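Fold these two proteins, one after the other.
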Amino acid sequence: MTRLRLRVSPKAKRNAVQGLRGDALKVSVTAAPERGRANDAVIALLAEVLDLPTSSIALVSGAASKDKVVEIPLSSDEIARRLA
């Protein structure tokens, strides 16, 4: 299991993983930050990019913040390889 720091930009033009910014992975989603929609979109995007089921990715902290931490059942090396 790896905990991954995210910096999320909601209400973006498209869903995208934009790469590392400092110690966090920059992610943009089209969903608005209302009633957890942006959080759901972030998890769905990460699941698609990392080829994992959405149920295997857990939001650990930052539900109401642009800075989030998710837990992913892969090693950090495997995450980097799949994002490349």
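Now the second one:
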Amino acid sequence: MTALDPMEVADMTAYGSQLAAAPDADAYWHRALNVGNAAQPPVLQPYPSVVRNVDVYDLTFAGYDDHPIRGWVLSPRGAASAPGELPADRRLPCVVEFIGYGGGRGLPHDWLYWSACGFVHVVMDTRGQGSSWRRGDTPDRGAAGSPQVPGFLTAGLPNVDDLYYRRLFVDAVRAVDAARSIPYVDPDAVTVTGVSQGGALALAVAALRHDIFATMPDVPFLCDIRRAARIATVKPFTELAEWLAVHRAEADDALAALDYVDVALLAPKASAPAYFSVAMRDEICPPSTVYAAFNRYGGVEKEIAAYAWNNHEGGQSFHQVRQAEWLTDRLTRAGRALPA
């Protein structure tokens, strides 16, 4: 037991096997992934950033129902300068990153780590978000007043087809398509990552497609939602508890709907190598819920870094170093071209 999660730590390492996904979850996601899907090519426009050692592009690609989704592409200087399509041994590995709850893509210089490490870095803006702690530029089409201040976890409840995260998970899947289409990206070396909500999206992508190289979910959100709603003491999960307290007659339907976007329930479908992190004093994403996703994760190669004394901030820059080392080791073993 941690100071904040009532489950004993020893029990966390085995927890999660009793959780069950909805029997029609595969069909649900098959339908969602085929809403729109006109295969429109992404658009990259050079962006006049103050950053001098990184090439920056403003990205737009077609997300759920072909809604335009914004993002950034940051690359080591000169990676994009070669004319035409580069030979495979000169293409770079790519990290696609998803953003935490309430934040947007901000400005390019907010995102220099992975390009400084030699990777192509694709940052997906989060539809409707980006009014809490970093500005976003992608409205949630059909949602008035977006980007907005949070409330996304309960958006669309209790109708399973109207869930906000249905749209966002499909956006994340298609962000990988956009990354793989970049001529100087190695399409077989695309890794997904993110912190909190971003970690949930990285897990969802790993479950919904099987052509990613690896996933690195950092203190992921949306794991074991039913338990998290009961024990988390800080938003966003408390938003769900508040909603359920008011919508008493719809509580069961709402929780059943959220089962479809619970990444602990999706995790058995994933197969890519995975490097998780968990913070053992986390009040936002309780550690037992993260372990539920890790324990159920379908990939044979998986590791988890546990930060015993940290809250939701987790390992921060210390963990970024671990991620880069872990990913570089796997790229080397797979024989993929490495950053210069």
